[in-house]
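In the previous chapter we treated chains in isolation. Here, by contrast, the input contains two separate entities that must be folded as one system, with a combined length of 802 residues.
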Amino acid sequence: MTLRVANEVLPIAEDEYRARLDRTQHAMKAAGFDALLLTAESNFRYITGFNSQTWVNLTRPRYCIVPLRGDPVVICPKSNVVILETTSWISDVRTWPAPRPEDDGVSLVVEALKSCSGQSGRVGAELGAESRLGMPVGDFLRIRDAVAPTTIADGEYLLRRLRMVKSPAEIARCRAIGHIASDGFARLAQSLRAGDTERDAAAKLQADLLAHGAEKMPYVIAVSGEHGYPCINMGPSDRVLDAGDVLIIDTGSTFDGYYCDFDREFAFGTPCDDVRRAYDKVWRATSAGIAAVRPGVRTCDVWQAMALSLDADSVSGTGVGRMGHGLGLQMTEWPSINREDQTVLAENMVITIEPGIAFSTTDRHGHAVQKVLVHEENIVVTVDGSAMLSKRAPTEMPVVH
Amino acid sequence: MTLRVANEVLPIAEDEYRARLDRTQHAMKAAGFDALLLTAESNFRYITGFNSQTWVNLTRPRYCIVPLRGDPVVICPKSNVVILETTSWISDVRTWPAPRPEDDGVSLVVEALKSCSGQSGRVGAELGAESRLGMPVGDFLRIRDAVAPTTIADGEYLLRRLRMVKSPAEIARCRAIGHIASDGFARLAQSLRAGDTERDAAAKLQADLLAHGAEKMPYVIAVSGEHGYPCINMGPSDRVLDAGDVLIIDTGSTFDGYYCDFDREFAFGTPCDDVRRAYDKVWRATSAGIAAVRPGVRTCDVWQAMALSLDADSVSGTGVGRMGHGLGLQMTEWPSINREDQTVLAENMVITIEPGIAFSTTDRHGHAVQKVLVHEENIVVTVDGSAMLSKRAPTEMPVVH
């Protein structure tokens, strides 16, 4: 069953990895870096192709060093060699017998960085906003001291910029998982029942996604409440879903390493007018956001298009702090779609469009209560606009009877 | 369906979190720390109870500051407040409107750390072996500079030591997922068919685990080959399973945040003598390892018991570098069970017993080939020995016809 979709998506060839390397080295030259030190799963995979769930295990780090010229060097535990031989195009692989807490690859990394040392005297590492280092920071500081007078500065922004623009192979993966999840949400609207818990709902969706070819489902939240939900990033809990409830499920699931990230809502029984108005308002703001997207437009312009369609107070009330973001090997990538961000959209960027509002309604006891409502879609920027990667949410909230 | 197991496992009460805090503060006092700065999901959850899949999103970090006296402070994005109110006992919550790349909580963290400043002038952070910082390193370095003359040193080892010994509530969670996965593997032996791919096999197991109450399945690898597999940490691929193949599946799945981590093997058709001998040898080494476990014994002694049962060359041939490890909120926790590690086992530690060997066999063309064979079980150290958390693997490899 999983092969059907896989066959429509071709493997990423060595040529593509070499093109990524070439672009990276051009950017390094322009920015004045002799080498990049990569340790985070997404950057490591982007350059090397290395594909393994072993990143869950924090005992053994791995390192990719991209020199200004020539092929990358991978420094990894012995137990990673077969993975590299099977999934990566990199031939210069240096190993140590991990775990070895007193030197978990550190001396090999220092040696490799020293041999890259050149004109600029600078190495780029993953230090900037939204980055995470895939190694112990104590070891990073040791490496930094050992390579002096070479300095280590943030270099992740180079890869972040390159990774924003996707290749056809990358877009195909985002589309594959976007379609799997869209169809899964549509089927979920049929299989949900009053009396299900949030946990049941999330489990039903996950079972469906698995059966239709999703690879991993790292993020499947479910939040519900009477006439709306209080936030979009927790659960599922054992809360039982019943008449009057609104349920949101948001999923970041993957196909061959690439994420979708979008949500859908379900009303248990006919939703009240407040909920229907909020849904319609945010649905239309989503359309406004999508319509604003084309090459040359800035992310802040897309934000403004959505903000115009909503009202400013209710936008800030969600607490989410932006209305969309990049998407790819990570569930959230650069850029943010917010009031300040000036990133200029370009063809083949994959982004989410994610407007939301806070709204007031009345609970069964007649008390005023605050809820949020957030929609999300995944799109790719095309030459003259955008194309959907998720299938557009229904114009009215699906009702579970 | 998921409630059945959940009802047997009680929520972790505020008393338990307060006891964890108390032990942490005692350890901080003894080690000379004025505060701990925690940013990794496992440590953050261990102290605060904060439970959300939002850690998949790297845009917004969060910080827990444990002072030497008094309650912890949480510094988090506004969008995390409802999660904290719902899942955490912490009342001192300070927020900022994230994402805000120019100050993603940094000034709030600096202010909170300065107000903890005391006699020792030292703050502990997650810097040591096997740790990962859950925030950008650039921001960490900024904080380090801003709190000077207070110094920041590795303090994670304190929590690592405390977290090694589990509470009854933690053990119940490890047991719950250990049983779900054990039963799932047993059912998989019945549902596997020649002609399935590795991906099908992994998907069947995951669907089963989900249906029986597993929460997340971050790690479900599947590797196969003729008469054995080449490593234990990659796949599943689209390789078709057929007569003569051996398949290993290893899963790190969770129940309410706590992991199991063990594997099972499946033979497609009657396994050859080399495979049967290897399986029997490693099965007996697993028993030897389990039998060696009791309070007061060192991890290296448990390793020796397994090494004695195997032979030294074939042990190092697996490349795994150890024969078990701690288990809990992470799939792999301190300590390692290896030749050097001197950790003294104590009651209520949860560990994996994971011996393995490299062995030679002959492929269908008559060529000598190298394979590995690794077994794994999850146990808890008891007052006079140990108790199984996984259900012991069958004495002979299950055969799929």
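Residues 1-5 of chain B have pLDDT under 50 and may be disordered. Chain B touches chain A through 79 residues (CB under 8 Å). Compare these points with the single-chain example from earlier in the chapter.
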